[in-house]
Amino acid sequence: MKVIVLLSAAILVAGCAHGTRPEAAANARHQDRGEEARLAAALAGRTAGAPQDCLSEWDLGTQTPYGSDVILFRDRLDQVIYVNRPPVACPGLAYGMAIKVQTPMSRLCRGDLVTVFDPVSGMATGGCSLGAFTPYRRAAPPKKH
């Protein structure tokens, strides 16, 4: 049993040391630029509104993570996209992952704690608190005279 614990600790330490390499940091920056480009494409043709502190969960449809520091929520009618940037990056949040509120309520609010999980296995991979929700709406078409 001691061997398993020591081996696990050695693997964790090696993983932490590997993450501090310059090439690992460069890869993370490259990945962040890629996620920001994906986010920009998703928001193309939309205009940002004033940030909101809370949203009704009933009004929300899908959620999509963009890296570990952006969660995009679409409303049920796909008219408004809400961008949430947690104040601190959300460990484990990546494409294909999902979040759930730790204390289920009818509203999602800034400061709510969420758990990141794999929707296929159900395994939790991290968590964070939410930031404000910035709505993005399609720009109104120009009026014809």
Number of strands: 10
Structural domains: how many? 1
Q: From the alpha-carbon coordinates, what is the Rg to the nearest angstrom?
A: 19 Å
Estimated share of beta-strand residues: 25-35%
Question: Could you name the ranges where pLDDT drops below 50 across 5 or more consecutive residues?
Answer: 1-31
Protein structure class? alpha+beta
**Overall pLDDT score:** 78
- Using the alpha-carbon principal axes, give the shape: globular
Q: What spatial order of strands do you see in the largest sheet? A: 1-10-5-4-3
Distance between the termini: 79 Å
List the helices and strands and how they pair.
Blueprint: H1 2-19, H2 22-43, E1 46-48, E2 54-56, E3 60-65, E4 71-75, E5 80-84, E6 98-101, E7 107-109, E8 113-117, E9 124-129, E10 133-138
Antiparallel strand pairs: 1-10, 2-7, 3-4, 4-5, 5-10, 6-8, 8-9
Description:
By secondary structure, this protein is an alpha+beta fold. The protein has one domain (2-138). It has helices at residues 2-19, 22-43, and strands at 46-48, 54-56, 60-65, 71-75, 80-84, 98-101, 107-109, 113-117, 124-129, 133-138. Mean pLDDT is 78; it is low at 1-31.
